[in-house]
Amino acid sequence: MRTFKRQIYFFTLLSIIFCQQDVYRTVDDIKDEWTGYTSYQKEEMLSFCDFLFREGHYERCLLNSFQILYKFPEDKTTIVTEYYIARCYEEMKNYKLAQKYYSKVIEATDSDLTIHRAANYRMIYVDLTMGNLDVVLENTQPGKDPYMEVFRGYAYLKNAEWEEARISFISAQRIFNHPHYDNLITPIYQAIENVNEIPRHNRYFVFLAGTIFPGGGQFLLGERNNGQGILSTFGLMMLIRSWSKGENIFGGNRLLDIESTSIPLNKNYNYGNSVGSGNSQKLPKKLVISSSSIKFSLPPLIIGAGIFIGSSWKSFVNTQEKNKTLVEFYVEEKTKKITPGQFLDFPEPELVVNRK
Predict the structure, then answer these.
(1) Residue 122 pLDDT more than 90?
(2) Which of 168, 174, 222, 288 gets the most CB atoms within 10 Å of its CB?
């Protein structure tokens, strides 16, 4: 019996020892297991972030990306995550924040890396989208990079510098040396060739129309609402002036019908020096009546003339801006199917390297 109890104690002790060995593992074992778990978690988060971006859920992709940066701040994928944060902001048209993160990527990477070049292209493309044409021209010096030449060509195109734009696109086409880009660039050449067909307004003819007819310059420039406003205001001023004439204010008959009982209706009159008719009951033969109706008719006349002359001068000054708008509209219409975005086919970093 005692031997049986001893055996039970022995087996119990052995089981405790084995259990202790299973529970109290080494630090390296725990570290290896946790590393495997965090690596799996990181890959899952990156895959989910990649899925959200490809499906166009940019706000959710942003949140997931910031969680990755928070949980794995020193990981090698951090810079790629920041690139896609910039991409999300760009797609959401928050260009300032997009440029902020593109700048971080550019500063943290070498110039020969794919991610560095992609961030640089995207930075210039954002400047082009925002209309920072001088910045684009400054950062795209002529060279051997076809994408830079394309961005430069579009900047010249928007500035209506046709010959410079043609040279940039010719350079880009030569460097690309591929039929795909030939098909994209050829319509742009056609738009440049047809630029002389854009209808433009002659500023002197517009000014002449404005001096002949109130608002005529605005009507000629296609600014119908402005022309109607000028015409209506000028007509109102002339109507007020017609109402302010002396006859309309004081009446045409200044005296009562019977001379002996007449008194002037206008207080501002002078007798003059003419001799009376001899009848003391009558007023002098000659009455000199004066009135000050000019103070009522002069202000609307001055305002109307100011509107007339001012509108003519304004139409003369605005003609150049109107012609510029016509050119911009022409360029937009001709190139809306060949936008700079169609050239953004350069290699970009991937969140999931082995994505199928």
Answers:
(1) yes
(2) 168
- The residues near 131 (Cβ < 8 Å, ≥ 6 apart) are 158
Task: Determine the CATH number of domain 33-139.
Answer: 1.25.40.10
Residue 98: is its pLDDT beyond 80? yes
Q: Where are the domains of the chain?
A: 33-139, 144-197, 201-248+292-350
| DSSP secondary structure of 249-267 | HH-S--S-SSGGG---SSS
Q: How far is CA 30 from CA 23, 42, 74, 151, 314, in A?
A: 11, 18, 21, 53, 80
DSSP state of 340: G
Task: Say what the pLDDT of residue 180 is.
Answer: 92
Whether the pLDDT of residue 120 is over 80: the answer is yes
Whether the pLDDT of residue 124 is over 90: the answer is yes
pLDDT band, very low/low/confident/very high, at 73 (cuts 50, 70, 90): confident
pLDDT confidence of residue 76: 80
> What backbone phi and psi angles, to 5 degrees, belong to 77?
-85, 0
Q: For residue 195, which of 313, 27, 324 has the smallest C-alpha distance?
A: 324
Report residue 141's pLDDT band, with 50, 70 and 90 as the boundaries.
confident
List the beta bridge partners of residue 295: none
Buried b / exposed e over 233-260, threshold 16 CB at 10 Å, is bbeebbebbeebebeeebeeebbeeeee
